[in-house]
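Pair request: fold both.
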Amino acid sequence: MLGFLKRRRLPADKRPKLGPDERVVAWAGATGDNVVVATNHGLWLPGVEQRLSWHEIHRATWSGRQLAVVAARELPVGDEEYAVMADLPPLVLTLLDPDRVPDQVRVRVNKSIAHTSHHPLDEITGVRGGVRVVGRRVPGVNGLCWTVRYDEGVDPAATGVAEQTHELVAWARSSIGTAP
């Protein structure tokens, strides 16, 4: 009775080593007898020993069969107020039995974003292109973590770029009421 309410169980041999407060919210069978596991903290991908946290995912798209995930890495720029991020190559996974994984990825990545705005840099600096300023919620961190992502071709070391970026991050923080 009520068999349609039964929850699918992740096979024990496919379960990743979860953190203390981490729980599985969805999982999907993928090609090659692999699984993709979504938890309340992030996404466990085949062949990866640690999870990709929701705030580390810059973009994810679902085609109806393939999940494409673009993660970001921090560049060594050295500002305490924000991190400069760059996209990693997309990871494309074919999900044979997607269940609720695509929906959970969309919802949880979106929930991690508290602020996002894009600003052109060329007006003041003469640099063609812009910068995206993002404030994200990170589990275990009080307040927001701020990142910037420059448009392709923008040199963060160009004259005036760092100064204008710092002002834009300060503006974003004040617009949502968070101090540095």
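--- second member of the pair ---
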Amino acid sequence: MKIAYLHGFQSSSKARKATILKNELSNQYPNIEFVSLDFPDDIHKAVDFLKGFVKNEIKKGTELYLVGSSMGGFFSLVLQIEFDLKIALVNPCIYPSEFCIEHSLINVLLENFDTHEKFKITNEDIEYLKELEQSIKEYNPKKTSVYLQTGDEVLDYKKAKLFFKDAFVNIESGGSHTYDNFEKCIKQIVEFFKKY
């Protein structure tokens, strides 16, 4: 079993939840392989990179599972639909095109918090995200578990709650977008992945 962590927007493989997941898995589940992925900030390149990673793992015969946070949760859904993977999503972003428009992020020079690489989201990226948003409606509820905190200050948890009404959803009061006390979820995530 291998778990890959997909970080959120403007983040990297060194994200807080990635570190927590890595430490908890190595302490409690030493047989589970773990990787936290770095992928481009550019939307098209990110999707291409992640699809290439999954294809390569499948070719090797890896039993692969994804944990995606925020924008990484959105990408996890895109990958699930193409490759039929089990995924766990933490405060996921369901409508990134909407988020970018609402926060006036289009054609603005943005910077990755960790790598400090500069990038822009173009109108073309928004159209691409809208297409992907249509595709994720076909997600598999039986292969999806979702962890939300009502105190998420970045994304409205109610949108995810509604979208994932047919999947397993764990909603905690309070918390934040970072997801407070994430370590408490890890046993549940691993058990969900192990279930068939």
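Observation on the second member. The mean pLDDT is 96.
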